[in-house]
Amino acid sequence: MWTSQEKTNQHNYELIESPCELILDLEQIKKHLNDLPACDGSEDVYLTKVANAAISYAEKITELDLATKTYRLYLDHFGSHHHHHNNCINIFKRRNVEILSVEFLLDGELQTVDNNNYFVTFSNDYPQLCLVDDFCFPDHDNRKQAIQIKFKAGFGDKSCNIPSDLCQAIFEHIAQMFTNRGDCEECDCDGNLPSNTKMIYQAYKPLTLTTCQYNF
């Protein structure tokens, strides 16, 4: 578990690739809405907007990437206080993290760490990039953002990869916003979330040693 001080400053993470398509199928959403007017296709644009807002809110609360995204993490050195523990680097993105490359500047040139020299731990909270036993982090230039770690995080590109209860929670949130349009279109009304959605989001929130960042 990590304290709030250990969790990442968001400016260290660069989002470099994100899917353009809605991760939740619009027809699935309409099916959940049953006989509401949105089911005839006349409000697909608005429904897509609401769905994107609900997904963004779910990702903010749970700190999960529902659709797989590609990030680049910048560190000043491998021994960064907040990211480095016992030859491991904390990756403050959750679930299904895949490291694409670990690069570092040496004499002004980017060098690559062989992927046979590290592995990623599994965790329901935050995974770590750890070194194999006989390898040490290499020397690098003494400058800001000398380390670049490129990785993917998320459940994939299909809604079937997302846990079913989490999908259900988002569907209920979408229905709530659609039927009460104008009240919470930006998804920033914690108190108006359906009770089942609150419960499921709470179950997916990461563990910390301090009070949760988002309170319902």
Descriptive notes:
With 216 residues, the chain is an alpha+beta fold. The chain has two domains: 34-66 and 158-204, no CATH class; 69-153, no CATH class. 25% of the residues lie in helices and 20% in strands. The strands form two sheets. It has a five-stranded antiparallel β-sheet, with no helix packed on it. A four-stranded antiparallel β-sheet has the order 3-4-8-7, with no helix packed on it. Strand 3 and strand 4 form a beta hairpin.
Task: Describe the secondary structure blueprint for this structure.
Blueprint: E1 13-17, H1 26-33, H2 44-62, E2 69-75, E3 84-85, E4 88-90, E5 98-106, E6 109-112, E7 118-120, E8 128-131, E9 147-153, H3 164-179, H4 195-204
Antiparallel strand pairs: 1-2, 2-9, 3-4, 4-8, 5-6, 5-9, 7-8
Helix pairs in contact: 2-3, 3-4
Short description:
Helices cover 25% and strands 20% of the residues. It is of the alpha+beta class and 216 residues long.
Count of β-strands: 9
Low-confidence stretches: 1-6, 209-216
Major β-sheet strand ordering:
1-2-9-5-6
Task: Let me know the average pLDDT.
Answer: 82
Characterize the overall form.
elongated
Cα(first) to Cα(last) distance is 21 Å
- Based on secondary structure, the structural category is alpha+beta
Please estimate the helix content.
10-25%
Largest sheet: 5 strands, antiparallel
What's the SSE pattern?
Answer: EHHEEEEEEEEHH
Q: Report the portion of residues in β strands.
A: 15-25%
